[in-house]
Amino acid sequence: MIQLWRVLLIAGLLLAWELAAGRLFNEFWSSKPSLIAARLWTMLWSGELARHTGATVSEAGLGLLCGGLLGVLIGVVLARRPRVSQVIDPVVMGLYGLPRVALAPLFVLWFGIGLLSKVMMALSMVLFIFLLNTLEGIRTIDADQIDLLRTMRAGRWYTLRRLILPAIVPWIIASVRIGIGLSLVGAVVGELIGANRGLGWYVEKSGGQLDTTGAFAGLAVLLVLAVVANQLVVLIEQPLTKWRAK
Fold first, then answer.
1. At what angle do helices 33-46 and 2-20 cross, to 10 degrees?
2. Which residue among 76, 109, 125, 202 has its CA within the 20 to 30 Å range from the CA of 21?
3. What's the mean pLDDT in 91-106?
4. pTM of the prediction?
């Protein structure tokens, strides 16, 4: 029933947009769904859609994966070294508060205009989300549980596998859901600075040519990617929750 209401809501919004364009406002500034759908169809058959979407998905996906693994690893290490964590906390928070978008030109300078600069841009956007959530998740673990395992002479790997990792699963899943959008932002920003393909590059090119239909087509694909990725996380969350309960 919820899915039906979602479909009806989206259909209603698209219909209102279609009817309003050209009547309430000039469609030059906003295009309209029928024109955007026609453009996407043309891009699909020409192979342009796959080329640009594949580039952006690769950049954002690799950035999210690498940033997630690195962030969780650093978070676990810092959680096991409280004094080190306290010492570097101002540095971590300072880097977290730094607008990574402003680093995009430097990333292009350091890593070139290829795949690596976009991956690093996406990684920088999600790294601290995973790191801070992992730290907070471990800090919420009941100290009595850790002491109990220590009295039973449980090894570090056993404690990590049976207590710490299951405890931080919800925090990691939340980080992934937040990171999906941020990794896409990082990839697109990197494409805006320097690229020859990708959805961000296509949106910029279309905007520069006053092609609002093309710009909205690129944005529509980015929107669909974010929705699909979040739904995949929802599907993955259930088996992970079952594993955590074992």
1. 100
2. 202
3. 81
4. 0.84
pLDDT in tens, 40-79: 998 889 888 899 999 999 999 999 999 999 999 998 888 8
Rounded Cα–Cα distance for residues 227 and 41 (Å): 20
Domains of the chain: 36-245 (1.10.3720.10)
Report the chain's mean pLDDT, rounded to a whole number: 83
CB atoms within 10 A of CB 65: 17
With 70 as the cut, is the pLDDT of residue 244 above it? no
